Amino acid sequence: MAKPIVAIVGRPNVGKSTLFNKLAGHRIAIVDDTPGVTRDRIYADADWLHHEFKLIDTGGIEPKSDDIILAQMKRQAQIAIDTADVIIFVVDGKQGLTDSDNEVATMLRISQKPIVLAVNKVDNLKDEANAYEFYNLGIGNPIAISAGQGLGLGDLLDEVVSHFKDYEKEEDDDFIRVAFVGRPNVGKSSLINKLLGEERSIVTDIAGTTRDAVDSFLDTKEGKFILVDTAGLRRKSKVKEEIERYSVVRTLTAIERADVVVLMIDAEEGIADQDEKIIGYAHDMKKAIMVIVNKWDLIEKDDKTMDKYMNDYKMSLKFMQYAPFLFISALTGQRTHKVLQMIKMCYDNYNKKIATGVLNDVIGKALLQKEPPMIGTKRLKVFYGTQTGVKPPTFVFFINDESALHFSYSRYIENQLRDAFDFTGTGLKIEYREKKKDS
Q1: Is 154 annotated as a binding residue?
Q2: Is 151 within 8 Å of 123 (Cβ atoms)?
């Protein structure tokens, strides 16, 4: 089940990012240094009292601004509101209630989402009375906090998680949720329309849903699918930086909710940094992933062209060699009949279960075939392993000493699992826990 989404919104300079960093702590979801994959600290895992959730830092909303991106700022605020299950509305207790706060509050009331009002910068008890003024916003009880000093955050989080009881997974578990991601104009919408037009038996299009721009429900012989079309990610510029921030928020939310993430690439343009970045998030989340190269009809080719393109793409995406590729033309329909088949294959592997006995047979043979290296004076011993979950396939191996585990050997074990059980198209989550022989 996907985690609830909590968005932090408010006008600029009220302390949203400080609150985000304080709540996220060291539990930032995307922290590894995969080559070529940059990270934005706008999306993090957080938890409170055993409630896990996704936290989004949305940047500033300034409805009254005369800036050239005024219209976009209002649109961005709406995206943050739409993608969230609970909204933390941050205001400045030192500055007091402003017209901009009232403007943002109006947008939030219309959303009918649960709203938690945080009056920030209340750094001592004598300033708590400053929070009372914000009752005038008419969106609930203000909670006095100091994000910088960590004051009042427990009360704030108690209120946030109290709304999670209303959070339910909207889609049926029988559906495979698929997020199509990539830059603008690579053909995401065209492909989805092709799939809906040619292969549907039961389809419902819902525009303007609370979590995505368009969710399309599709029932076929391959299975039941929810197809999610996301906004394209453009190259950032000084003017567009905040605008693109919200495209990222929406796309990341779609990835978090998805079972399978489909990266679409324009065959003529190839893979860009933005593609590596966004699919890097899906890789870090251990999602099922496939890559579709669209507009293949526009490429002059011979019998070696596809192999050459695939090798080039795999070099750019070498951190996720497990992802399968499919070369199509959404315009002509070339190979589009294979899209759902490949998605279903990736999903099946994402949901695959391995019996404990079979798993340990494979690992035992792998250990005999290649003995773990000595790390200092220690050598890794793997006592046994077990699968503890699916979506993604999650394995726990009990070992003698974590300091004896070299990253190259953990990669070797993962490769052995992939070779033995065919985990094409899915990330794997592998954990190692120390266990003494006599325990």
Answers
A1: no
A2: yes
Which tokens in the block code for residue 98?
Answer: 């402003």
Name the helix (H) or strand (E) containing 19.
helix 16-24
Helix/strand/coil for 119: strand
Domain boundaries for CATH 3.40.50.300 within the chain: 5-166, 175-350
CATH entry 3.40.50.300 includes domain 5-166: yes
CA separation for the pair 192, 229 (Å, rounded): 8
pLDDT the model gives residue 206: 34
Do the annotations mark residue 102 as ligand-binding? no
Q: Is 121 annotated as a binding residue?
A: yes
426 assigned ligand-binding residue: no
- Is 351 labeled as ligand-binding? no
Q: Which CATH architecture has domain 175-350?
A: 3-Layer(aba) Sandwich (3.40)
Residue 4: strand, helix, or coil: coil
Q: Is 389 within any annotated ligand binding site? A: no
98 CB-near residues (< 8 Å, 6+ apart): 11, 92
What is the per-residue pLDDT across 395-411, written as a single tens digit (0 to 9) for each? 999 999 988 889 899 99
| 231 appears as a binding residue in the annotation | yes
Residue 220 labelled as part of a binding site: no
> Is 60 marked as binding a ligand?
yes
Other Cβ atoms closer than 10 A to 407: 7
Residue 36: predicted pLDDT: 26
Residue 93 annotated as binding?
A: no
**187 carries a ligand binding annotation:** yes
Q: What is the pLDDT of residue 103?
A: 84
The answer to the question of whether 295 is labelled as a binding residue is yes
Is 296 annotated in a binding site? The answer is yes
Helix or strand run (H / E) with residue 260: strand 260-266
Q: Is 184 annotated as a binding residue?
A: yes
356-434: CATH number: 3.30.300.20
Q: What is the dihedral of CA 304, 308, 310, 316, to 10 degrees?
A: 180
- Any known ligand binding at 10? yes
User: So what's the pLDDT on residue 70?
Assistant: 44
- Is 233 annotated as a binding-site member? yes
Question: What is the sign of the dihedral through the CA atoms of 272, 274, 279 and 283?
Answer: positive
120 is in an annotated binding site: yes
Residues 77-110 have pLDDT tens digits of 566 677 788 999 999 998 899 888 898 888 888 8
318 known ligand binder: no
> Residue 391, annotated ligand binder?
no
Mean pLDDT value across the chain? 81
